[in-house]
From TrEMBL:
Membrane-traversing stretches: 12-33, 39-65, 86-115, 121-146, 158-180, 215-234, 246-270, 282-301, 307-325, 355-374, 380-408, 429-453, 465-488
Keywords carried by this UniProt record: Membrane, Transmembrane, Transmembrane helix
Coiled coil: none
UniProt name for this protein: ABC-2 type transport system permease protein
Origin organism lineage: Bacteria, Bacillati, Actinomycetota, Actinomycetes, Micrococcales
Lineage: superkingdom: Bacteria
Keyword Lipoprotein attributed: no
Organism for this UniProt entry: Microbacterium horticulturae
């Protein structure tokens, strides 16, 4: 009787969920149709924000729920089907699912809204079609990824990571909306933010009927093409790959090792995550960063700088020191470094795995601090500049630290000792390496800092600062990982001697 009771309860739950979804769709359609008498800015902001939220939901929901995919491509292995035909058939069948049908109803109402507002019907209908196809393909791709890779590894750690990821998205948006001053009309900052959102894969399709330029059309088409290619690749892989049977019990006891990929880099990342979240030596380094960022504001306020400008200082300082933190990460391993050397872990796996904890923590912290700082500043037009500056400081610092930790490890506190105990040093090499990483991070970021300064007078430098900062940071990180990997492989034996001596 227990299975029957569970089945009845599940049926009731699904029925209630369908009713709630139906009511939400009706309310959403009614709200969209009411916008035909609203201003153009109001209609554009509401439709782009709503469409972007719906698209994001189709991406996040499969990762959070972890439900089994009833149209799993792996179930068709024995039928000898071609990848392209099966991918197209499964994608088309996804149109009959309840979430996509609900989204389609909203897309139809959106098309009707813009047609009634005088927009040419090809633009209105095209936006609805592209938005629906984007949501459909996103649902298929991320449901397949969740089924293939996440379901066997679902654990408390993974759930925590996904929840934190959602918070990273929600908190900045909430801070932004709370900081706006409506005064009876749509704030200019919100309109500018929606224009930026209209150039992203989430909002590009929904912004086509609005005056957003040809860039939104290009982004929307490229997004659909990339999702279609990803879906075909996943179906192709599913038909030609047989995964080992999942372990039904005991997987939760593996902790972070059950979350990270089963690769050398994944193993290093899992071990590093365990250290960064439990070892007092690592936690002490993290705890100092907020203090440094707060103290840096004091002298600036004393000399009379306005608070609205001083409040922008903590985010770049945090980005700089987050990138600097792993500069001596290898020395904290002590004699455990021999595990990497004895097992033949490649240098790139070691380098990438070690920066994962700092990258995760840094991204989460900066995703909250940047919007809070900009919200207190009051001018959201400077947000892209802050993103570019923090990206180049953070990513560039991680790349340079990947070189320094392999090239010049210095003595650190031994495992189990107080994190505030100072180790004995026989030279200045370690201190010099620390200073070089900080100075080099600032030098790498100098162009972005200059563009950010110019953007205060000329807004055309805002996008240059953001994309230039991201590009410089990514390139520096890639070069740093490559050079650090080569140094690690060349100095393996010497690194073990230094770690034992430390």
């Amino acid at each position: 009787m227990a299975p029957l009771r569970r089945g009845a309860g599940a049926a009731v739950g699904r029925t209630l969920a369908l009713l709630v979804l139906a009511v939400a769709v009706v309310i959403g359609c009614w709200g969209l149709l009411q916008l035909q008498t609203a201003g153009a800015a109001t209609a554009g902001v509401v439709t782009v924000l709503s469409g972007s939220a719906i698209t994001l939901g189709f991406v996040v929901a499969p990762l959070l729920t972890g439900t089994t995919d009833p149209l799993d491509p792996r179930a068709f292995r024995g039928f000898g089907l071609r990848s392209g035909r099966l991918a197209a058939t499964l994608a088309a069948s996804g149109m009959l699912t309840v979430p996509v049908l609900a989204e389609t109803a909203l897309a139809v109402c959106l098309a009707v809204l813009w047609i009634r507002r005088g927009v040419a019907w090809p633009a209105a209908v095209g936006a609805a079609v592209l938005g629906t196809v984007t949501c459909l393909l996103a649902a298929r791709v991320f449901r397949a990824l969740a089924t293939m890779f996440l379901a066997p590894r679902r654990s408390r750690e993974l759930t925590g990571v996904l929840v934190v990821g959602v918070l990273v998205l929600v908190v900045p948006v909430a801070v932004f909306l709370v900081s706006l001053r409506w005064n009876g009309h749509v704030p200019h900052a919100l309109v500018e933010a929606v224009h930026i959102l209209a150039r992203t894969p989430f909002g590009a399709a929904w912004a086509l009927p609005w005056r957003t330029g040809a860039l939104s059309l290009v982004v929307a088409l490229v997004t659909v093409a990339l999702l279609a290619a990803a879906w075909w690749g996943l179906v192709h892989r599913a038909l030609r790959t047989v995964e080992p049977p999942a372990v039904a019990r005991g997987i939760g006891g593996l902790g972070w090792f059950a979350v990270t990929p089963s690769t050398p880099g994944g193993a290093v990342a899992a071990r590093s995550l365990l250290y960064w979240l439990t070892d007092l030596r690592y936690l002490a380094n993290l705890a100092v960063l907020p203090i440094i960022a707060a103290v840096a504001m004091v002298p600036l306020l004393i000399i009379g700088l306005p608070f609205t400008w001083v409040v922008l200082v903590p985010a770049p300082i945090l980005a700089l020191f987050f990138g600097w933190l792993p500069h001596n990460d290898l020395a904290y391993d002590s004699t455990a470094i021999w595990v990497h050397l004895a097992s033949g872990v490649r240098g790139i796996s070691d380098r990438v795995g070690r920066i994962v904890p700092v990258a995760v923590i840094g991204v989460v912290v900066l995703a909250v601090v940047i919007p809070v700082s900009v919200g207190l500043h009051g001018d959201w037009a400077i947000a892209p500049v802050m993103v570019g500056v923090c990206a180049t400081l953070f990513l560039g610092g991680l790349g340079l630290s990947s070189i320094a930790s392999a090239a010049a490890p210095s003595p650190v506190t031994r495992p189990g000792d107080s994190p505030f105990r100072q180790p004995e040093r026989t030279g200045s090499g370690g201190v010099l390496a620390q200073g070089i990483v900080l100075l080099a991070s600032l030098l790498v970021s100098a162009p972005v800092l200059w563009w950010g300064w110019l953007s205060l007078d000329e807004r055309r430098y805002v996008d240059v600062a953001m994309w230039g900062g991201i590009a410089i940071g990514v390139v520096t990180l890639a070069l740093g990982l490559g050079i650090g990997a080569a140094v690690f492989e060349r100095r393996g034996t010497r690194l073990l001697e230094l770690a034992e001596a430390a």
